[in-house]
Amino acid sequence: MQPYRSTAPAGSELPVMIEPAQPGEPLLQAFSRLRGDIDALLPRIGGVLLRGFEVPSVEDFRRFAAAFGHPLLSYEFASTPRTAVSSGIYTSTEYPAHQHIPLHNEQAYTREWPMKIWFHCVTAAPQGGETPIADSRAIYRRMPDALRTRFEEGLLYVRNYGDFDVPWQDVFGTTNPRAVEAYCRRAGIRWQWKDDGGLRTEQHCQGTAVHPRTGEPVWFNQGHLFHVSNLPPEVRESLQELLPPEDLPRNVFYADGSAIEDAVFDQVRAVLAEETVIFPWHDGDVLMLDNMLAAHARTPFSGPRKVVVAMAESASDARAAGA
Fold first, then answer.
1. Domain TauD/TfdA-like: where (predicted)?
2. Do 217 and 209 meet the contact criterion of CB atoms below 8 Å apart?
3. Which of 68, 162, 174, 274 has its CA 20 to 30 A from that of 13?
4. E strands of the chain, at which residues?
5. Each residue of 174-212: pLDDT tens digit?
């Protein structure tokens, strides 16, 4: 086992690379041998890269992820477009190839999230398409004290579904408004049906969190993705001319509902950039992350690229287990 990276901040061990005992070793066959090392490495480092193993099919990847003992999760209350490949397996975010997807922890804009996330590179893009990662503990430590203190009070996420964002039918996986309301009620989400049939939701969520197993504080939110400053300037300008602030597709506010200045997220993005680890994908790679300890992203790419994702172990399960 060894750390592997192309670029990384000083002192980073992300990700630890694990290679086969012999060339062509099937990943599923190696599971019992690897399980102990992975269980020890994830809470310490945050992520492992399994490289050089035989992964003949997406089904083999699914079985490997499921072998860790938690049912694979469905992608609920989505914020980005994805397609289900099979039970518990999804495409990575289906944004256009030229777009960069910033670092984030999966579903950190909600109160429930997966503790484990796996990425399987079926086809590596000939150019770009990496999945950068970063240590959420290091991000937390590097954030300016005043900013970190304010975010520890939480964030308020506001979403308007429809023409300018993912439709609510796709986000909630239903066309039944009553089912949406039931989900929101369970999740502590405030909702409002608009006269045009659109939906607005508001939810107060964490800005930072404490890992239920390690007890360490982590930077854990998607404020920089939801904030209006994440939009290209020309898109932001046109939307703000067209829509009142409360009807923007998505935005984020301080816990008390007050606006967050652009300069705050300039600082956040600078810290994320300083903690970014980038390595090239190889066909067949499997990357396993502790979703609270490691954030992930996607770089622009050209040519064919196929990366599929699995998630497991909800945070509520981890907390209930007293981990």
1. 32-310
2. yes
3. 68
4. 2-3, 16-18, 47-50, 84-86, 89-91, 101-104, 114-123, 127-128, 133-135, 155-161, 190-193, 199-205, 208-210, 217-219, 250-254, 286-290, 294-298, 301-302, 306-314
5. 999 999 999 999 999 999 999 888 999 999 999 999 999
CATH architecture entry for 2-126+280-320: 4-Layer Sandwich (3.60)
Residue with tokens 């996420």, as numbered in its chain: 157
In this prediction the pTM is 0.93
Give the rounded distance of the alpha carbon of 249 from its chain centre: 19
Query: Which CATH superfamily does the domain covering 139-270 fall into?
Result: Clavaminate synthase-like (3.60.130.10)
- Of the candidates 279, 251, 238, which has an alpha carbon nearest to the alpha carbon of residue 134? 279
Among the listed residues 294, 307, 298, the one whose alpha carbon sits nearest the alpha carbon of residue 116: 294
| 101, 300 Cβ separation under 8 angstroms | no
Domain ranges of the chain: 2-126+280-320, 139-270
Cβ within 8 Å of residue 55, ≥6 positions away: 26, 27, 61, 64, 120, 284, 286
Shared fold status for 2-126+280-320 and 139-270: yes
DSSP single-letter state for residue 197: S
Do residues 220 and 207 make contact, with C-beta atoms less than 8 angstroms apart? yes
For CA atoms 259, 261, 267, 272, give the dihedral sign. Answer: positive
The residue among 211, 151, 170 whose CA lies nearest residue 81 is: 170
Within 13 Å and on the Cβ side, how many CA atoms surround 226? 27
Return the residue matching tokens 């049912």. Answer: 71
Map tokens 């777009």 to a residue.
99
Question: Residue 97: pLDDT band by 50, 70, 90 thresholds?
Answer: very high
Enter the tokens of residue 229: 């400053």
